[in-house]
């Protein structure tokens, strides 16, 4: 069976810095090295907010041992999210006009293609080091199942040849009964990885059902917590939404699904996107460690010491 490789979404969240890293672990380099002694995979989410810097990417790759795997979240325009005009590179700022809020929403396809190219080029040091896992394409919640959306995913894959693309849907139309089989078949035909999610149980359109399935040789599970009360609070922040400590009983629900995934995929990853803290407990690594413990007690091979 394939082991479940467990980590967190970010190694530099405020909660980790305040409640997980020892006081003497102060710099970014020290934190990543310390993190890599306890987990062997991480999802980098800062790349959603701005394009990654190649030098920074190279440093990340240099600071972890062989076998460590990074997953990189796609820059916002790549997944049809708006982006602040000021964070675009100068060459792209000149090609698009911001709206009244200083954002760029509807980006011409040729400009978006350049975004993909810059993102891909920036990851080359990590790719060359053999430490690049998947690129997370977390689609905007208003991207619904329809022909144009399918065409966009095909186009996006063409922009990132050879990379393992992890597709996370955020509108439930993709995985409701009407379209579920077609969605899974589409991903499987193209070797795209379905991102399996654990999230609040709700009928909200921006909460997809948990569908345990493999559509490529990679299985990828993101744990968002089950904070239903704060998920769609008007004016609430992402930090509020993902504020959640899992109960052991909730983690135990994942024993059989993980066992199923390890029997189907060549690599299996589980990452915690819970990012608050309670005193000296940081949710991400705490939840990750306890998931690893739960799986190991049940006889499922899992990494992650917390």
Description:
The protein is α/β, with parallel strands linked by helices and 306 residues long. It has a single domain (4-80, 106-297), classed as TIM Barrel. Helix content is 35%, strand content 17%. The protein is built from 13 helices and twelve strands. It has helices at 14-19, 28-36, 54-62, 90-93, 109-122, 124-128, 147-159, 180-190, 228-231, 238-241, 248-252, 255-262, 283-297; strands at 4-9, 41-44, 69-73, 83-84, 103-104, 132-138, 164-168, 193-198, 218-223, 267-272, 277-278, 281-282. The chain has an eight-stranded parallel barrel. Strands 4-5 form a two-stranded antiparallel ribbon. α3 links the parallel β2 and β3. The longest helix is centred in the C-terminal third of the chain and has 15 residues, at 283-297. The two termini are 22 Å apart. The model has no long low-confidence stretch (mean pLDDT 95).
Order of helices and strands: EHHEHEEHEHHEHEHEEHHHHEEEH
Uncertain spans, ≥5 residues at pLDDT below 50? none
What class, by secondary structure content? alpha/beta
CATH class reads Alpha Beta
Task: Name the CATH superfamily assignment.
Answer: Protein of unknown function UPF0759
CATH architecture label: Alpha-Beta Barrel
Count of discrete domains: 1
Strand line-up across the major sheet: 1-2-3-6-7-8-9-10
Which fold name fills CATH's third level, the topology?
Answer: TIM Barrel
Q: What's the mean pLDDT score? A: 95
The radius of gyration over CA amounts to 19 Å
Which percent band covers the strand fraction? 15-25%
What is the terminal separation in angstroms?
A: 22 Å
* Percent of residues in helices: 25-40%
| Secondary structure tally, helices | 13
Structural shape: globular
Number of strands: 12
Quick one: biggest sheet? 8 strands, parallel, barrel
Q: So what's the oligomer here?
A: single chain
């Amino acid at each position: 069976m394939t082991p479940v490789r467990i980590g967190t979404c970010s190694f530099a969240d405020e909660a980790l810095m305040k409640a997980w890293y020892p006081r003497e672990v102060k710099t970014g380099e020290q934190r990543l090295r310390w993190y890599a002694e306890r987990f062997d995979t991480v999802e980098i989410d800062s790349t959603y907010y701005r394009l990654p810097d190649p030098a920074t990417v190279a440093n990340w790759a240099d600071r972890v041992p062989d076998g460590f795997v990074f997953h990189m979240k796609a820059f916002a325009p790549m997944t049809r999210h708006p982006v602040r005009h000021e964070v675009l590179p100068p060459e792209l700022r000149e090609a698009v006009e911001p709206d009244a809020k200083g954002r760029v929403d509807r980006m011409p396809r040729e400009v978006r293609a350049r975004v993909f190219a810059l993102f891909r080029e920036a990851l080359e040091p990590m790719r060359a080091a053999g430490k690049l896992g998947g690129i997370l394409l977390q689609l905007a919640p208003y991207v619904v199942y329809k022909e144009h959306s399918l065409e966009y995913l095909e186009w996006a894959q063409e922009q990132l040849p050879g990379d393992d693309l992890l597709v996370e849907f955020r509108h439930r139309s993709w995985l409701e009964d009407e379209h579920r089989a077609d969605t899974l078949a589409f991903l499987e035909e193209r070797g795209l990885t379905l991102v399996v999610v654990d999230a609040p149980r709700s009928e909200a359109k921006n909460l997809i059902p948990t569908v345990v399935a493999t559509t490529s040789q990679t299985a990828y599970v993101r744990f968002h917590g089950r904070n239903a009360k704060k998920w769609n609070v008007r004016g609430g922040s992402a930090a509020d939404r993902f504020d959640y400590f899992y109960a052991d009983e909730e983690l135990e629900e994942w024993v059989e699904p993980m066992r199923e995934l390890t029997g189907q995929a060549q690599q299996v990853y589980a990452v915690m996107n819970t990012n608050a803290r309670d005193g000296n407990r940081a949710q991400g690594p705490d939840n990750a460690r306890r998931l690893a413990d739960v799986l190991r007690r049940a006889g499922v091979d899992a990494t992650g010491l917390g």
